Amino acid sequence: MGKKKAIRTEYLLIGNSAGGIGAAEAIREVDKRNSIKIVSDEPYQAYSRPLISKYLAGERNVDEMLFRPADFYSRNGIDHLLDRKVEHLSLDRRIAQLASGEQIIWKKLLLATGGVPIVPKMKGGDKEGVFTFLALKDAIAINAFIEDDSQAVVIGGGLIGISVTEALMKRKAGVTVVEMKDRVLNTILDETASSIAEEALRQAGVRVVTNQTVAEVTGGDRVDGVVLDNGERIRCDLVVIAIGVLPRIELVSGTDIKVNRGIVVDRCMSTNYPDVYACGDAAEAYDFIYGANRLTPIWPNAYIGGRVAGYNMAGVRAEYRGGTAMNSLNYFGLDIATAGMVVPPDDRHWEVVSQRNNGAYQKIVLNDDLVMGMVFVKDIEKSGMIFSLMKDRVKVTNFRQALLADDFGLAYLPRELWQECLGTVPAGSTSAFGMPAKAEEPISSE
Ligand SMILES: Cc1cc2nc3c(=O)[nH]c(=O)nc-3n(C[C@H](O)[C@H](O)[C@H](O)COP(=O)(O)OP(=O)(O)OC[C@H]3O[C@@H](n4cnc5c(N)ncnc54)[C@H](O)[C@@H]3O)c2cc1C
Fold it and tell me: Which residue positions in the chain have pLDDT lower than 70?
């Protein structure tokens, strides 16, 4: 590809998803004039990645998945370069080299590059009919491949594995989930909640195989089955690999930008390199439960981190208050809400309040009278309030025993909190669900 003339921009955002859009919106709030360019190697306008399972299930089309209206970019004077991959960054010269041959020179750079699926080395893993499930193109490819009564093996019983399983079942496929650990959803649920979720899967007709993984994919050019570690053969037409996602850090590997598991950022979402920021699944940002930087790859954290980065890029100081792993799901008709540490790391100083009735399960993990984690299954009505206590670091000393009581509500909370829940707080203080009235707002301009 021939070398083309370099284009200059004030703000270059790599990644056109939750993080990139969050940043673009925050920048435009404070800088209406200077140029913003968003580059994405996907060909679509920003869409909601969590909805790709709804697309596969036939419940949403692409237009119904858009994160922002079709005229978002033109209305905000944002130049979006789609289907273009950034191949290389020259940090000292501030140049991004695109696969198309174009070069972009930035003043401020955001890395909102998200994640890449983990694909294990596996005999037969390159056959037609083996998929990953991370992007809309994956859902489109599976959609074009399956037929009624297709048999699928999903490798991985985590969030992505279960979401693709539900979509495939809605498409009348038969599904076997193969999970390497001893229980499904093991990173976000405790043992009891996992067993309830597993039972819901079985009730829906999913076969769940735990403590196993796929050793080999069999067939000619096309998949016809898998062989598990224990030698069992399962006939299938397609295999979906959903064993996890890693931060997409290829652009900064080997550069001066500090990377741990993800790109390391401070509370302003700034990397250690001048004028380079990062957010979302690619970054390791502050987790308020662990009190340290960690990967917390969920959509709201990416968006809020992007907004914080955007303000700082535009010269207005803002701080990320921190996020934590938090999920609210409904799979196979089962409501689940989970956040923070759902299993205490050791016995000392930890207290667990839990109850089970009528198939519902609720558990709150406390340390030093602070809520550090929660799991709600089936009856999740109070989970928002508990998450609020967790996020706001409210000491529950005086109402600890009442946390799971039927009548637990605003009246138990300290006055300033329930006033806030009723919407009577003055602007600028914290909101009912633990975020500042707008978590992503600038805190001050220094
Ligand atoms: C199936 C599925 C279900 C999910 N469900 C939920 C859920 O229910 N709730 C929730 O909170 N989260 C969910 N998530 C996670 C959520 O989607 C992510 O946390 C979120 O998308 C992260 O946003 P991001 O902006 O950091 O990155 P991404 O959304 O991953 O976007 C990064 C973008 O950057 C592009 N890019 C990367 N490198 C380059 C390059 N070199 N050049 C050009 N473009 C590049 C990528 O192609 C991609 O388009 C789900 C994810 C999946 C896959």
Answer: 1-4, 347, 409-446
**What residues pair up with 247 in beta bridges, in sequence order?**
115
Q: Are the C-beta atoms of 212 and 228 separated by less than 8 Å? A: yes
Residues of the chain with CATH 3.50.50.60: 6-116+246-313, 130-243
- How many CB atoms are closer than 10 A to CB 67? 17
CA of 361 to the centre of ligand 1 (A): 30
| Cα–chain center distance at 236 | 29
**Orientation angle between helical segments 159-170 and 191-203, nearest 10 degrees:** 20
27-71 tens-digit pLDDT:
999 999 999 999 999 999 999 999 999 999 999 999 999 999 999
Rounded to the nearest 5 percent, the helix, strand and coil shares of the chain are 25, 30, 45
Q: Whose CA is nearest to atom 34 of ligand 1?
A: 15
Which residue in 13, 69, 60 sits closest to 39, CA to CA?
13
Q: Confirm if 363 and 192 have CB atoms less than 8 A apart.
A: yes
3-state class of 337 per DSSP?
A: strand
Atom of ligand 1 nearest to the CA of 326: 11
Nearest to 374 by CA among 428, 321, 416, 338: 338
CATH for 130-243? 3.50.50.60
In the reported structure, the alpha carbon of residue 31 is separated from the centroid of ligand 1 by a whole-number distance in angstroms of: 26
Q: How far is the CA of 281 from the centre of ligand 1 (A)?
A: 7
pLDDT of 430:
30
pTM given for the model: 0.92
Calculate how far, in angstroms, residue 252's C-alpha sits from the geometric centre of ligand 1: 18
For residue 173, is it left (φ>0), alpha (ψ between -120 and 50) or beta?
A: beta
CATH number assigned to the domain covering 6-116+246-313: 3.50.50.60
Three-state secondary-structure class, residue 314: coil
Query: What is the pLDDT at residue 14?
Result: 98
DSSP for 180-218, written as a single string: SSSSTTTTTS-HHHHHHHHHHHHHTT-EEE-S--EEEEE
